[in-house]
Design brief:
By secondary structure, the chain is of the alpha+beta class. Helices cover 49% and strands 12% of the residues.
């Protein structure tokens, strides 16, 4: 049995094998493997007795259920209109300069992914950024440079 199948079985034991377990199972796979492979989605569909199209449709709808390989550190910059009005473009430009990757790319060593995401729910504190599960708000180019340089130095 592959590691992915073992993980899916573990998640099925935890969440059950009903349709309403789909999102927790997919989220559990992403937490462990950082993205959903085609094989994982097919296995989940088979185990939950739903179509592969339904699994892929769900996975591709939610921005946190990655269907493409991502780096160990996923940096998501809020793309809401509020963050845009508060300087999101400068935040993205700074992140691209520090990480030496463009928006939507992974670093060559798979340490970082730089993405835009729909509203993080922090509009009153924008521009906002999420690195893995940690939120950063009221960003400036200077604060982004400091946050990302700290992350680069930590070798995580």
């Amino acid at each position: 049995m592959t590691e992915t199948k073992a993980l899916i079985n573990e998640l099925l034991d935890k969440h059950g094998n009903k349709r309403n377990s789909l999102i927790p199972i997919l989220n559990g796979i992403v937490e462990k493997e950082h993205f959903l492979t085609k094989e994982a989605m097919l296995e989940v569909a088979a185990q939950l007795d739903i179509s592969a199209a339904e699994v892929y449709g769900t996975a591709s709808f939610y921005s946190f259920l990655d269907t493409k390989e991502r780096g160990r550190n996923v940096i998501r910059i809020c793309k809401s209109i509020t963050c845009d009005m508060k300087g999101k473009k400068e935040i993205i430009k700074t992140a691209e300069e520090v990480l030496k990757i463009k928006l939507g790319e992974n670093s060559s060593n798979k340490r970082f992914s730089l993405l835009e995401t729909n509203c993080l729910g922090l509009c009153d504190e924008g521009p906002a950024m999420l690195i893995n599960d940690e939120c950063y708000t009221k960003l400036t180019p200077s604060s982004v440079r400091e946050i990302l340089n700290d992350l680069l130095r930590n070798k995580v």
